[in-house]
Write a structure and sequence with these properties.
The complex is a heterotrimer of chains A (about 280), B (about 290) and C (about 425). Chain A is an all-alpha fold. In chain A, about 70% of the residues lie in helices and about 0% in strands. In chain A, helix 7 packs across helix 9. The model of chain A has no long low-confidence stretch (mean pLDDT about 85). Classes of the chains: A mainly alpha (about 280), B mainly alpha (about 290), C alpha/beta (about 425).
């Protein structure tokens, strides 16, 4: 609805938008600020906003207690690994559903989505037993498998909605030229689908990074990602706001930065077929 | 283009996902069903025995069950209402030309990147804590008694935290939809003398309906199994005031280690989720068909 | 030297490096995220320096998450951990099932006879010590000497509950955010129910009678709960129903509590000037009673156990022995001072004149010695455990009961309603579990 806008109106809207934006962002900002305070300053009354002695001791303490980089690397491997594996399985499926729809395609798609509604706690013990017997407990491989399966329906659905927007005639034309199925996917479809795939990739990395049930319950030390890292700061003894804030900042910073840098791709693709 | 050849190829391409998901569903689910008919406590191995529907009877007659059922629905609905209304307003705002639009957008979507555990911890300790939280400080500054959110409005507090996390998601989808709105149509309506409100109701809202459906679908999938936020903030209490079905199943199987009871609860949760899914899918199906 | 010899030499060196690397045993240790454990983690370099063939990996978790993780793992024989931090509740149950490795064969230098009898008894099943105590605790009253003086009262060594209620009221100054009494309110069998069960013992209440019938419908429980709710309503902090040990510690350290009745280990935190704003104004007293012969204090020991079936039993044993040894106590004392030594496990510590100077040492020992897990209540009961009942079903039941009492504290239900619900749900759970057994 961007049309003729008076400067005054633009100012008013700017002030309003910034106010709302800062309000929504405030909890994160406050966490980041608190992470640089001493424990005593963190609970000072009235609260201190900027006028406190900035310190890095919380970060040093957190790093000394838990090996941040190992948890970080586990998070990276697990979230990127499961997303890539998921895309590998999902792209052919979504392609087929979008371009060769059968009578039951819609039902299959809906069924896939409905598997995501199963409460994970209900099947924890069975999965734990299976993982134990397969030697997958506390392995990154195990978590990659689980998170792939968990996010697969969302990946397929997102890709499906993108692929559907690609006009079928282009594929027809490619086929006339004698392109094989794989060539068709590789050279015709993929370039057009890149924004959609990129956005799916990003969204799924975020979802996997933040997944806190399976990652916490199926790992111990070796494969534990940042969700487990944060679990050791959740309710410690004594004053802990500053340390908790530092650990929180460390846990969310990577994905926050990635999200911000790729927000254009994420936003452009995040339609789920909501826009015709 | 639906030749026999391409149909076969399509089946071949779909089958890995279908088989994987089928396996992911059937194997644990059948084990869960098996456990649900057993007296099986993790702490007393070797005493498992077939007890028929006793686990189901206990789960369904548990006073916590109905509380959990209504809490689940209230939580899902509450978050949906807040995120859709808030998201629409935010999308309208962000669609306007604004100085520093990129930065504002970054601020607004940031909560979506925050781990649920982290956001719950931050809200619980640094905002809602009645002694050291910021809300308490604010209340004291205004001369009011600090309000104890997690004790006196536990479900509302959890709803608020979850809504904060999902608001960016709704906003983004609604914003994308808004940007695809045909400007000519709006201008024509304006020429015809339609005020901003009626333009919103008759042109913008119908245009957004598809996006709203998508938001409802995706969010419901995630909201039905909200767990980390409750575990971190209220542990389902006080009483059962913020226990949802997922949390109740968790309490049965991992706090009481009653795998049999927890499995029965899990199966009931699956059935309930399928009922919700059924209605949702019909609604979505209709809206997305076109 | 010819090239081939260099190559052979290099290969051999590489192989040896590999072999040395492969010989290193990795112990995965699950611990709770409290101060003493974190200190142990920081000091564990001393252990690995002495045992270069052992590598330690730490899984530090919040208490509830830890308990859920290790229980799931040991019950399914998942084998993810080589050393587990467990309490006096788990040890008797797990030991009886044969899930833990017996520690009877620790070397003589370990001096197991030095372990306090009350603590050792709680960790022993059929003559086998199944876990080594890292620190032991009871509960006691911690109070602000300055506020007590200001209120014109003086704390007896062994106060009654009536005195506590009176003092709490006198010390409360809500305008200045000083609350006379801080107690646990957060639901959980190890949180509010630990406190309330121990308190109820001193009011003559009990969980079950000799026929395993739940007793929440009896007068002593009503008296105990009503007393707790009234006192907290009058003199407690806001939001008490979500306060556990850690929350109360933070409140006390920041000077917002007049009295706090909780674990004896808290004494070293509240008297540590680095973290506590009131470090020099804290006094201690035994947990209160009502004159019925039982005091409201509990007994607990965070201990290190080794799951049966672990493939690294020997390495795990040497670690457990190190972490719970006299030498470890001396190590902490030399690095961080006597006040920070993990308390409540060894008689020799209390015989040490250096340690006797620590202000809370004697009170901790007296509290531990006054708790008796084998006879916790005024009447005879069929169970073991002061602030818990050592049966597998207890965790679940007590957490659900704790939810009811937390709701009563939050004011959403009445004390009568809470007790009625507690009785009903305990009856249900016991029926399901097949009691009396």
């Amino acid at each position: 609805m961007a049309r003729s806008v008076t400067p005054r109106r633009k100012m008013v809207v700017t002030v309003l938008a910034w106010a709302v934006g800062l309000l929504i962002f405030f909890p994160i900002l406050w966490t980041i600020l608190t992470s640089f305070k001493t424990e005593a300053d963190a609970i000072a009354s009235p609260p201190l906003f900027l006028g406190f002695d900035w310190t890095l001791e919380n970060y040093a303490e957190v790093q000394e207690r838990s090996d941040y980089f190992r948890h970080f690397w586990n998070s990276v491997v697990i979230s990127v690994g499961s997303t890539l594996l998921g895309l590998l399985i999902a792209i052919p499926s979504a392609w087929a559903m979008a371009f060769v729809p059968g009578r039951r395609t819609k039902d299959v798609l809906m069924w896939m989505l409905s598997t995501k509604m199963l409460p994970p706690v209900g099947v924890l013990i069975p999965i734990y037993l299976i993982f134990r017997d397969a030697g997958l407990l506390d392995t990154r491989t195990g978590l990659v498998i689980v998170l792939t399966l968990i996010n697969l329906p969302i990946i397929i659905w997102m890709l499906f909605t993108y692929f559907k927007e690609i006009p079928g005639e282009i594929l027809e034309a490619a086929r006339m030229d004698g392109a094989t199925l794989w060539a068709e996917i590789l050279h015709v479809l993929t370039p057009m689908a890149v924004p959609g795939i990129a956005s799916t990739l990003l969204l799924n990395i975020i979802l996997s990074w933040n997944e806190a049930f399976w990652t916490l319950n199926l790992t111990a030390a070796k494969a534990a990602p940042l969700t487990a890292f944060i679990a050791s700061y959740s309710s410690p003894e004594g004053l802990f706001y500053a340390k908790l804030s530092a650990a929180s900042t460390m846990a969310i910073a990577p994905i926050l930065i990635m999200g911000w840098f790729s927000q254009k791709q994420l936003v452009r693709g995040l339609t789920f077929g909501a826009v015709k | 283009m639906a030749t026999t050849h391409s149909r076969t190829a399509a089946r071949f391409m779909i089958s890995p996902s279908v088989l994987l998901l089928l396996g992911w569903m059937i194997v644990p689910l059948s084990m869960t069903i098996w456990f649900s008919f057993q007296s099986y406590n993790l702490l007393s191995p070797g005493t498992e025995e077939w007890i028929g529907f006793l686990n189901y009877e206990f789960f369904l007659t548990d006073p916590a069950f109905f509380a959990a059922l209504s809490n689940t629905l209230l939580l899902v609905l509450g978050v949906l209402v807040i995120t859709i209304i808030g998201g629409t307003l935010l999308a309208l705002l962000l669609d306007q030309p604004v100085f520093g639009q990129g930065v504002v957008r970054i601020l607004v979507i940031a909560p979506f990147f925050v781990m649920p555990t982290v956001s719950a911890l931050v809200w619980k300790n640094m905002f809602m804590n009645p002694v050291n939280g910021l809300f308490a400080h604010a209340a004291k500054a205004m001369g009011l008694e600090p309000f104890d959110f997690l004790a006196h409005a536990p479900l509302f507090s959890v709803t608020l935290i979850v809504a904060w996390q999902w608001l960016p998601f709704a906003t983004l989808i609604l914003l994308t939809a808004l940007q695809s709105l045909d400007q000519d149509q709006l201008e024509a309506a304006e020429m015809d003398g339609a005020g901003p409100f009626s333009r919103f109701i008759y042109i913008v809202v119908p245009h957004l309906s598809r996006a709203i459906t998508v938001v409802i679908l995706i969010q419901t999938i995630f909201l039905l199994s909200i767990f980390a936020e409750i575990l971190v903030t209220t542990n389902g209490g006080p009483g059962y005031a913020s226990t949802n079905i997922t949390y109740l199943v968790y309490a049965q199987s991992l706090l009481q280690f009653d795998v049999g009871g927890g499995s029965a609860g899990g199966i009931i949760a699956v059935i309930l989720a399928n009922i919700v899914a059924f209605f949702l899918m019909r609604m979505i199906g209709k809206n997305l068909e076109a | 030297m010819t090239l081939s010899r260099i190559l052979v030499g290099a290969t051999a060196a590489t192989l040896m490096a590999f072999a040395a690397h492969a010989e290193k045993e990795k112990l995965t240790i699950a611990t709770v995220n409290n101060g003493d454990m974190i200190r142990m983690q920081k000091l564990s370099g001393e252990f690995t320096a002495k045992h270069p063939d052992i590598e330690l990996e730490w899984v530090t978790l919040e208490e509830n998450v830890l308990r859920q993780r290790v229980t799931t793992d040991i019950a399914t024989k998942g084998g993810q951990y080589d050393v587990m931090t467990i309490g006096t509740y788990e040890v008797p149950i797990w030991g009886k099932k044969g899930w833990l490795v017996s520690l009877n064969d620790l070397p003589a230098s370990y001096d197991a006879d030095d372990i306090l009898p009350a603590i050792r008894g709680g960790l022993t099943v059929d003559g086998n010590l199944y876990a080594a105590p890292f620190y032991g605790e009871s509960s006691m009253v911690m109070y602000r000497t300055d506020l007590m003086e200001k209120a014109g009262l003086s704390m007896p060594k062994a106060p009654t509950w009536d005195f506590i209620a009176k003092a709490a009221q006198a010390m409360t100054d809500k305008k200045n955010e000083v609350y006379g009494i801080c107690l646990r309110g957060k639901a959980g069998w190890g949180e509010n129910m630990a406190f309330l069960t121990a308190t109820a013992n001193s009011f003559g209440a009990k969980w079950f009678d000799m026929d395993w019938k739940p007793q929440f419908d009896t007068a002593p429980w009503k008296k105990a709960l009503t007393f707790y709710l009234d006192m907290m309503g009058q003199s407690g902090p806001p939001g008490a129903s979500s306060n556990g040990f850690n929350e109360n510690l933070a409140l006390f350290q920041s000077g917002k509590c007049g009295m706090w009745i909780d674990a004896t280990v808290a004494a070293s935190f509240v008297t540590n000037p680095k973290d506590s704003a009131v470090a020099d104004k804290v006094g201690f007293a035994l947990a209160p009673d009502t004159g019925l012969g039982k005091r409201g204090n509990w007994l607990w020991a965070w201990s290190l156990g080794i799951p049966a079936g672990s493939k690294k039993v020997d390495a795990a044993k040497s670690f457990v022995a190190w972490a719970t040894s006299k030498e470890y106590l001396a190590l902490v004392a030399s690095k961080e001072g006597w006040a920070n030594v993990p308390p409540g496990t060894r008689q020799s510590l209390y015989d040490n004149p250096e340690y006797a100077k620590v202000p809370f040492a004697q009170m901790t020992l007296d509290s531990i010695n006054s708790a008796d897990p084998n006879s916790p209540t005024v009447d005879k009961v069929p169970y073991v455990g002061v602030q818990f009942v050592a049966i597998p079903e207890f965790q679940g039941i007590a957490t659900a009961v704790g939810q009811q009492f937390a709701a009563a504290l939050a004011g959403t239900i009445t004390a009568d309603q809470a007790l009625k619900n507690a009785q009903a749900l305990t009856q249900r759970a016991m029926r399901k579990a097949g009691y009396p057994k």
